[in-house]
Structures are given as C-alpha cells and as structure tokens.
C-alpha cells in the first residue's frame, strides 16, 4: 500500500494551480506547502510536488467516488490547461466497471481519475 508519492515539476506554482483545480472535484486539496514541496491530500498530504526537471513521465491514478467525479475532474483539468489523454469513459479491457479519464499535466505526466464502481 502506498502512503505517499512525489513528482518533480518544472514550475511548481503553475503545477500547484493546475492540481488545485483538477483535484478539487475529487476532494483533494493543497494541505502543506513549503520550500520542500507542495502536498495534496484529503486529511494529510499524500501527493507531493517538488521543484526540479522531470526526468521521466509518470502515470498517477487518483480514486474517484463516482463517475460524476471522474467527469468533473476531466473538465476541471482541461479548463486548467491539461491536454486530453483519454476522455471519461468505460475501459472494459481493464474490467467492466472501470470508468476513467486521462489528462496530461503541464509537465506531461499522465494523470487519471478512476472509479471502479458500477453506475
């Protein structure tokens, strides 16, 4: 079980604005912010942004409580400047109730919101 993770971003202020908007529909918010990094989460930070040049592009999936939250994440992320990497929809090749949306953040990281529950 993963407790927390961090990614490097080329412009932390830009990425903070992006993730603040994109994660809001999922209940994630900026919890801690300081010179060491910016931490997003619900009650504690579990997704960290750190200053630095991204060496590799990552795929991060964030759990959504329902399909409407996946849709809202996608719309919020796109409005915040994301690039589309797969609009909301069923991905049956994973399993029949896999409902996800994929966007590329400002550094090209593949960020996904996913709900595994039936409609």
Task: Give the helix/strand layout.
Blueprint: E1 5-9, H1 12-23, E2 29-34, E3 37-41, E4 45-51, E5 59-63, H2 67-79, E6 83-84, E7 89-90, E8 99-104, E9 110-115
Parallel strand pairs: 1-4, 5-9
Antiparallel strand pairs: 2-3, 3-4, 6-8, 7-8, 8-9
Helix pairs in contact: 1-2
Brief write-up:
With 119 residues, this protein is of the alpha+beta class. Strands 5, 6, 7, 8 and 9 form a five-stranded mixed beta sheet that branches. It has a four-stranded mixed beta sheet with strand order 1-4-3-2, with helices on one face.
Task: Tag the structure with descriptive keywords.
119 residues, alpha+beta
Strands, total number: 9
From the alpha-carbon coordinates, what is the Rg to the nearest angstrom? 14 Å
Low-confidence stretches: none
**First-to-last CA distance:** 26 Å
Tell me the fraction of residues in β-strands, as a range: 35-45%
Provide the helix percentage.
10-25%
Class based on secondary structure composition and strand pairing: alpha+beta
Q: Looking at the structure, what is the overall shape?
A: globular
Q: How does the major sheet shape up?
A: 5 strands, mixed
Give the rounded overall mean pLDDT. 95
Helix count?
2
Q: From N to C, what is the helix and strand string? A: EHEEEEHEEEE
Can you characterise this structure?
The protein is an alpha+beta fold. The chain has two helices and nine strands, in the order βαββββαββββ. It has helices spanning 12-23, 67-79, and strands spanning 5-9, 29-34, 37-41, 45-51, 59-63, 83-84, 89-90, 99-104, 110-115. Strands 5, 6, 7, 8 and 9 form a five-stranded mixed sheet that branches. The protein has a four-stranded mixed sheet with strand order 1-4-3-2, covered by helices on one side. A hairpin with a 5-residue loop joins β8 (99-104) and β9 (110-115). The radius of gyration is 14 Å and the shape is globular. The chain starts with a strand and ends with a strand.
């Amino acid at each position: 079980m993963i407790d927390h993770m961090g990614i490097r971003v080329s412009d932390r202020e830009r990425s903070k604005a992006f993730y603040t908007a994109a994660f809001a529909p999922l209940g994630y918010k900026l919890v801690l912010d300081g010179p060491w990094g910016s931490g997003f989460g619900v009650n504690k930070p579990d997704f960290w942004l750190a200053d630095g040049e991204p060496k590799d592009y990552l795929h991060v999936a964030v759990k959504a409580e329902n399909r409407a939250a996946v849709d809202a994440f996608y719309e919020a992320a796109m409005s915040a400047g994301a690039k589309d990497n797969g609009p909301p929809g069923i991905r049956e090749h994973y399993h029949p109730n896999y409902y996800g949306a994929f966007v590329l953040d400002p550094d090209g990281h593949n960020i996904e919101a996913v709900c595994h529950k039936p409609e």
